[in-house]
Amino acid sequence: MTTGRLRELALRVAVVVGLLAVLLYVGRGLAGDPELPLLVAGLILFLGLVVADPALVPLVALPFLLVTARLSVAGVDLAVSDAMLAVALAPSLLVLLAGASRPMRQVMWLGALYQFATVFTLVRNPYQANLVEWFHAGVLVLGAVAVGWALGRRGHGGRSLRILALSTLALALITLAQAVFQYDAGNFGPVEMSWPYQVQKNAIGTIFALTGVVLYVRPAWMGWSRAWSLAGFWTVVAALLTTQSRQAIIALAVAVSLLVMRRTTTRRRSKGILLALIPALVGVSVMVQDQIQSGNEFNSFFQRLTWFEDSMDIWGTDPWFGVGLRWWYTDRFPQAFQPPNSLMDTMTSAGIIGLVAFIALLVGTWLVARRLDPAYGVLAELVLVTRIVQSQFDLFWVAVQVSLPFLILGLCLGAAARHEAAQEEKAKVRTQVEQARHPALRARPARTAGAAG
């Protein structure tokens, strides 16, 4: 048994002992609580899934990782996606600690570098929201990659992509149905999904764009036919267009264009889709021009220009270390807004030091993805590009919009590592078979130094 297997077994035993201790404590202290049976049943189910396969909990949690609805836990307001990501992370660490590939370690080191770089702004700006967001950012990046890695490494990569695609298609169909009623009433404005929960147009638009990339890339290990994937892709695109999320439309167009134009993919792509992208980009251009010509200083275009100017002023108060993560939650500045640009957000929050580490994180992970086998790396690369492009015109550090691309990156890394391990095992078996058939091929013992003399 390898060291990694022993470490994983020890961690599983520790998890079992810990959960049994929790059950004992709950049973003794909350015997009169009517909700106790549900709590115990939930813990036992969680325990059973972890023991059977640590990746089963993340697999069950996958659809909820797309939910942006808010909930309150222990007085802390967070998205359902963040809560489920935290739940999925615990068993995923068992898989990660059992061993990680070189590309996975590189991504984790890049994430750790960013976390370390933002420690300086924690020390310089001590307030609760700063500390909470520091942990939150770590979970959104490192946690999401770890969850994706666990799913891919344990053989659930294709299944995970299908679950994400089906969950997004459900949201797309709801959005399209709402668009029909909205258009029938004569309202041709942006469609924001309001059932079963409210979702802002740019949030749902980013989900549609990222899943659209997954469906158009359609890696072989996803297990979907070309017809199914294209049907899903155009359904998601239709829903995206109804949201009128300009940032997401541009990001998806860039990703698809890069895929079509590059030659290092696993299959040839028709360049005809580039013609279909032109009307969408023209529509975005028309919407922007209408806002500029309206002269309304409070529309999204002019509001962003104002926020950019204010961001530069706030950054100037502490250019090296920044004024703190989630500084807009404080009353230190007359302005209270999250900069609608990933670079300005990071620059104001963590200063030049944090910005350099942030750029290293994005560029470094993109390079790691680019060096992967194209069967796995193309998807990872393009979801990162989609998110990077979209975040130049909108918020970056928000639930789902950060965790989803890094989750998919982890899926690709884990699936690639599993494939490489399987290939190495096959090669080893073939070598052993050949040696058994031809004893002369067996390695001869090396001559000793004395014999050589």
UniProtKB/TrEMBL annotation:
Alphabetically sorted, this entry's keywords are: Membrane, Transmembrane, Transmembrane helix
Location comes to: Membrane
* Domain O-antigen ligase-related span(s) in chain numbering: 232-358
**Residue ranges of the TM segments:** 9-26, 38-66, 78-100, 106-124, 131-151, 163-181, 202-221, 233-260, 272-292, 350-369, 395-416
Q: Which cellular component terms (GO) are annotated to the entry?
A: membrane
Q: State the source organism's domain of life.
A: Bacteria
Q: Its topology with respect to the membrane?
A: Multi-pass membrane protein
Q: Note down the stretches annotated as region Disordered.
A: 434-453
Q: What is this protein called?
A: O-antigen ligase-related domain-containing protein
Native organism is Intrasporangium calvum (strain ATCC 23552 / DSM 43043 / JCM 3097 / NBRC 12989 / NCIMB 10167 / NRRL B-3866 / 7 KIP)
